[in-house]
Amino acid sequence: MNDRDLMQDMLLLEKGACDLYMHGTIESAGSGIHQTFRSALNSSLAMQDDIYQKMQQKGWYPTEQVEQTKIDTVKTKFENAQMQ
Q1: How many CA atoms lie within 13 A of 45 on its CB side?
Q2: Calpha distance 36→28 (Å, rounded)
Q3: Tens digit of pLDDT for each residue in 41-59?
Q4: Which has the closest alpha carbon to 42: 16, 21, 11, 20?
Q5: For a tag site, which of 3, 40, 60, 68 has the least CB within 10 Å?
Q6: What angle do CA 34, 37, 41 make, to 5 degrees?
Q7: How far is 25 from 39, CA to CA, in rounded Å?
Q8: Inter-CA distances, 52 with 14, 43, 83, Å
Q9: CA proximity to 53, closest of 16, 10, 17
Q10: 4-39 b/e with 16+ CB inside 10 Å = b?
Q11: How far are the Cα atoms of 6, 11, 27, 74, 79 from residue 21, in angstroms, in the given order?
């Protein structure tokens, strides 16, 4: 397994942890439990961001710019959906 594959696996695992912690935060009944899940979520999000930044620096997670007209179209679509 090369470094890129390892980083991709780490990123996927971290995203999965974020999802679990988010649901734990949403569903927790007590404020102490809620705070514990929220703290774990914030830590996990920070780790996910670190992995993403390192992958992007190495060119392993390329992104592309979206045209402003496409952004505006999607924004308008959702604004219209909320009015209905």
Answers
A1: 9
A2: 10
A3: 999 999 999 999 999 999 9
A4: 21
A5: 68
A6: 135
A7: 9
A8: 10, 14, 36
A9: 10
A10: eeebbebbeebeebbeebbebbeeeeeeeeeeebbe
A11: 23, 15, 10, 29, 30
Query: What are the Cα distances from residue 25, in Å, to 13, 19, 28?
Result: 18, 10, 5
Total residue count of the chain as it appears in this document: 84
Its sign, for the CA torsion 71, 76, 77, 82, is: positive
| Cβ-contact 11, 55 below 8 angstroms | yes
Is 19 in contact with 67 (CB distance < 8 Å)? no
Rounded distance between C-alpha atoms, residue 13 and residue 21, angstroms? 12
The pTM is what?
0.75
